[in-house]
Amino acid sequence: MSLASAASDLSDLRDYACEWALVDVETSGLVPRRDRVLSVAVVTLGPDGERTGEYSTLLNPGCDPGPVHVHGLTAERLREAPAFEQVAERIGALLEGRVLVAHNAQFDYDFLAHEFARARLRLPVARRLCTLALNRRVDPPTGDLRLGTLAAHYGVPQVKAHDALDDTRVLAGVLRASLREAARLDLPLPLVACPPRQDPQFAPKPPKAPCAFRNPGRLSAGGQLVQGMKVAVTGETRTARADLVLRGVAAGLNMMGSVSRHTSALVANDSAANSAKARRARAEGVPVIDESAFLRLLDDVLPGTSHEGTAAPDPVPAPDPVPAPDPVPAPEPGDRAPATAPSTTLPAVPTPRAPEPGGATGPEPGTKRSAKPRGPLSGRRVLVLGGTHPEAVAARTRVVELGGAAAINLSAGVTDVVVLDGGHTDRRLPRITSLLLPTHDAAWLVAPVVTDAPGTDARRTATHVLPRGGVVDLPLPKGRAADHRWTVTASWAQQTACGIDVVAFVLDEDEQVAFDEDFVFYGAPENPGGTVRLMSDGPTEQTVSVDLATLPPSARKVVVAAAIDGSPAFGDVGALHIVSGPGTSAAALVQATLDAATTERTMLLAEIYRRGQSWRLRAVGQGYDHGLGALARGYGVDVAD
Fold it and tell me: How far apart are the C-alpha atoms of 383 and 214, rounded to whole Å?
């Protein structure tokens, strides 16, 4: 098929001109550190959109090819194919000096990073562009953002889905059309910097297994260990620390890397130790036993209560801060001062409430707990420009009260613009005028009068707009495991004063992480089981993906938060917008626009939590003045200042 045509010429889009390397990989699974690439295709385009090169090949992964029903690549077909290291240099030559482009680009990039690392070669990619993230910004009127759906919308023929070469050719057409839409809306491209990745960082690691038992509480004096007890170790030990941990895990204990008020016991040979764990144990009254006593108790550990079949209580929306689950103790002499002083109220899950009438299972899975808001702005997406921070917050809140969605960026889905004081200086206003979008003053929000607009479609009306504290049931999956994966995508207005990091915490019934690696952030974008992942889709958008089907029973909740990297506060950044749906490119089920006040530097965005046999999502929007370190410590993560 031809990749070039008069309509696809990009020579007039000089602000969007790059050397592009479009990539698609088919893989044996979904976890880059474990699974392998089965086929790869690369199509290179010049700044004018013309094809300059093309290469594709099957690969022999040296392992089971995985879901053949998806990609059609059997072990027999791959047996005579080259190994990745045999073609890595050729692929690298096509990527060198170009922007890597893929649909859900972090997936393809991470798989290539691991394959190049295994081949002991550098992945020559400095920047990448995700066409999925780009189209989230453009917001075309499509039912979802899958590659095939976008291809149909943009008039790009698709011959064979899940064929790496055909998918890459289709991607070329989608990229060209998306760049034209971005230019029409004057949108900056969501380019992501790709730092070098070295082999040791990406060597496959054995996954950590979450404890299968509930925490029974503290170890009593003269009592026995019980499966599920949270045990930490500090100081020098005669037995290797790793062996102590392995023996504790084998006995059914929850071996922790930090101490909190939920810790059952601390193992320390020096009862007067001055380590951070020992000081925290003394402050919280956690029992301390020495190594010999711990080894004796391991010989007779009592059976615990399994997480299976237990249900977490339903949180109540709490717009005001609540007391911390784990207050950070005052520093003692010799302590290093934290980079950011924690506030007096650390984040905590809101106070539980009694089960709803009718049992613990709640309403029928897949139903909303509150009626979808209806009003004169139902199906509308309203962008607010200008105003002081409180004025803009009030305007966006009013939009939601009237049944609309509050936008924070200009996109094809925006139907109306409200211009507050100072909004006439916004750089987007000339483009808004050229697009003939209706503009209004603040008085319009008192009793808005609207007319039908092309952007008012069934897709936008179907998305549930949650207010701050709003809760919705996630529908139970109807098919394979892919339907179990849910995403929460956070986005914000482009600005250069600071960076924003989206993070996630996988919490147990004590509102604590089971181990430090259940804190997912930029430096560790995946937890050990691969059930929660962070995807960086651009400088103003990050996504947390949660596989609800494979979360261990001990995981009661996943908290998604954002933190400012720099001196500004969320009052300077403005609102954050979140959308959530089943998978990275499926239609969003819910959306919410979250405003913090003026001084917060961290904000809880959303919670996905168990309710009986189903799951719920809550839009939180609770801000805190302290930094990310204090937020993490509040959830039991051992953070070094």
Answer: 46
**439 and 501 within one domain:** no
Strands lying side by side in the sheet with 499-507:
471-474, 614-624, 602-611, 557-565, 499-507, 519-520
- Beta-bridge partner residues of 365: none
- Give the angle subtended at the CA of 402 by the CAs of 401 and 404, to the nearest 5°: 100
Range of the domain at 197: 6-202
Beta strands 499-507 and 485-492 are unpaired
Please check whether residues 452 and 434 belong to one and the same domain: yes
Share of the chain above pLDDT 70, in %: 82
Per residue in 397-454, pLDDT (tens digit) is 999 999 999 999 999 999 999 999 999 999 999 999 999 999 999 999 999 988 765 4
DSSP label of 458: H
In a domain, 319, yes or no: no
Last residue of a domain, one of 298, 313, 341: 298
Q: How many domains does the chain have?
A: 4
Closest to 595 measured CA to CA, from 614, 578, 616: 578
Q: Is the pLDDT of residue 382 over 50?
A: yes
- Residues 190, 114 within the same domain: yes
pLDDT value for 86: 97
Asked if residue 528 and residue 451 are part of one domain, the reply reads no
Is 475 in the same domain as 448? no
Residues 77, 82, 84, 88: is their CA dihedral positive or negative?
negative
pTM of the model: 0.76
Pair of tokens at residue 427: 């750089």
How far is the CA of 306 from the CAs of 253, 506, 552, in angstroms?
12, 18, 11
For tokens 């808001």, name the residue: 373
Nearest CA among 561, 581, 565 for reference residue 623: 561
Answer yes or no: is 303 within a domain: no
564-597 pLDDT, tens digit each: 987 888 888 888 999 999 888 888 889 999 986 6
CATH number at residue 266: 3.40.50.10190
Phi, psi dihedral angles at 119 (to 5 degrees) = -85, 5
Residues 122 and 176 in one domain: yes
Q: 542 - beta bridge partners?
A: 490, 536
Domain-located, residue 361: no
Token code pair at residue 568: 């500004």
640 domain-assigned: no
Q: What is the pLDDT of residue 488?
A: 95
Q: What is the dihedral of CA 499, 504, 510, 515, to 10 degrees?
A: -100
Cα of 158 vs its chain's centroid, Å: 30
